[in-house]
Design a protein that fits this description.
Length: 521
């Protein structure tokens, strides 16, 4: 790194500073081919408001150009890029469009933080330091998970979050769309999922307690959902920024909002309310053919909305109490030759693994899907530590590491009493920064099954976007570096220095990151 380090987050794989600067002027043009016109236009929209420069997109610019090109000969992988800045031109090349998109984010970070303003900033010199960067990610799954079931988050906030993810070169947004406390995605065939399931009468509030007698409530109804048009907008916006949206439809547990809407999906036929408190409920999906058909129908619509190769079906925290007592569930176990209720859950998950595979998609689920036998095509998201991920990788399954320590961002960021209500312990920024997604227990071949990792934001105690941002940032910036930058480039002191400058960008972008204000907001 140069004496005055460029404050890039995440740190590029290879960076050589050069002498001089490229000056963005009213004559600067963005040069590209028709295939990259959309990406060039994104760059123009990024840079134009604050700089006030026209930055017209053209196919040939004789001088002062920012040139963007596809170059299949560059050996930097699907998401890598090469960025060369000289006083005469900026040249951004990548084999694939996703690499170009990541390169644009680096380019934005080479300009002053004021670049991120959405109106003209007078008196600025728009200079890009000369540099040669060759960059590619360490991991192919760099994710951010957001639970919109416990608290609905408005579409505009989802778009803002995606823009921030893109800035940090994340490429997966795991959208946790259904919960006991709310069903958040419109399904045309089953309108009551949102008419009934997207709204609840009340919400539990802090302090966190497992004792029903001590629970406190807001006294206010809560709800909301995304229409299919909203979803298409989000998916497109993400794709334009190199991000795949992985939807999660929870089954067979965490599905009480669906059962409230359609009681025949449960085990008892009992009419239930959308849940108003947090925790694990014993009310889970039944295992009848009607339930399988219903969720096939739901997924049919989900597949038309989400091009993601991976579809998340949840699979976590499914108590077996109702199945033990249900004659229908017991009959299913008998007819399928299943020894216990864990195997019944496996049978359920296997059904959807096959169903998704027949449609060219891959099932991903939380690590409980290991219990009772893992479905053949399943990818495991290891959240109860890394043991599930290790077992799955050793068995030849792909794995996404999402252990509570340190990737759960509903845990507080420090031990200070001033932190807002969290869940679990605390995961500091440094804990996240020092995380190593490849466990020592895996040999080189097994380690190839670790696709990457992601940060989890569960929103029981995050009623609004401001609180989500407070919990997510800057920890996601640290995770971005863990997942993108080379392992041997990890440097906590250097990261803190770069982060100090990076936080200026986040402040301009109005991110309510931890530490921005004297008191938590
Ligand atoms: C989880 O935290 N229940 C995946």
């Amino acid at each position: 790194m140069p004496a005055a380090p460029l404050s890039l987050v995440p740190l590029p794989a290879k960076l050589t500073p050069r002498e001089g600067m490229f000056q963005v002027t009213p004559l600067t043009r963005i040069q590209t081919s028709p295939a990259l016109h959309g990406v060039a236009d994104l760059l123009r929209r990024y840079l134009r408001p604050a700089t006030g420069m026209p930055l017209t997109v053209v196919e040939q610019a004789p001088h002062s150009r920012i040139a963007i090109a596809l170059d299949p000969r560059l050996a930097v992988g699907d998401e890598g890029y090469r960025l060369t800045v000289t006083p005469e031109e900026v040249l951004l090349r990548a084999p694939k469009q996703s690499g170009v998109i990541h390169g644009l984010q680096t380019l934005r970070q080479l300009l002053p933080p004021a670049t991120f303003r959405r109106a003209f900033v007078p008196g600025m010199d728009w200079k890009i330091p000369c540099v040669d960067i060759e960059d590619r990610p360490r991991f192919g799954w760099r994710g951010s998970h957001l639970d919109v079931g416990r608290h609905f988050m408005p579409k505009d906030f989802i778009l803002k979050h995606l823009e921030l993810l893109a800035l940090h070169k994340f490429n997966v947004f795991h959208w946790h769309l259904t919960e006991d406390q709310g069903w958040r995605i419109e399904i045309k065939k089953y309108p009551k999922l949102t008419e009934v399931g997207a709204f609840r009468s009340d919400s539990m509030t802090a302090p966190r307690t497992r004792d029903p007698a001590l629970r406190k409530f807001s006294g206010k109804p809560h709800g909301g959902f995304y229409t299919q048009d909203d979803v298409r907008e989000v998916v497109r916006y993400a794709a334009d920024r190199g991000i795949t949206v992985v939807p999660e439809i929870e089954m067979p547990g965490h599905a009480m909002a669906a059962i409230a809407a359609y009681p025949e999906l449960g085990n008892t036929g009992q009419h239930l309310e959308v849940l108003t408190y947090w925790g694990i409920t014993e009310h889970v999906l039944g295992v009848g053919d009607n339930v399988l058909r219903f969720f096939e129908d739901v997924l049919e619509e989900v597949l038309t909305l989400f091009p993601s190769p991976f579809i998340h079906i949840g699979g976590d925290e499914c108590p077996k109490t109702e199945w033990r007592e249900s004659p229908a569930a017991q009959a299913r176990m008998k007819s399928e030759g299943l020894r216990d209720e864990d195997e019944l859950q496996s049978w359920f998950i296997r059904h959807f693994d096959t169903w998704l595979a027949q449609r060219g998609r891959r099932l991903v689920g939380w690590d409980e899907i290991l219990e009772g036998g893992l479905a053949p095509g399943a990818t495991v998201m290891s959240w109860r530590g890394e043991a599930g991920g290790i077992a799955a990788a050793k068995a030849g399954h792909d794995v996404v590491m999402a252990p509570q320590q340190p990737t759960y961002m509903d845990h507080s960021q420090s031990e200070l009493a001033t932190e807002p209500q969290g869940i679990g312990g605390h995961n500091s920024l440094e804990d996240v920064y020092r995380y190593e997604p490849i466990p020592a227990e895996l040999n080189a071949d097994e380690a190839k099954h670790v696709l990457g990792s992601q940060g989890q934001v569960w929103t029981e105690y995050m009623p609004d976007p401001k609180r989500v941002e407070y919990m997510a940032w800057p920890r996601l910036a640290a995770l971005a570096e863990v997942l993108w930058s080379p392992k041997d480039a990890r440097d906590w002191d250097g990261f803190q220095q770069r982060l100090a400058a990076h936080l200026e960008r986040l402040a301009v972008l109005d991110v309510n990151y931890h530490g921005r204000w004297p008191k938590p907001a």
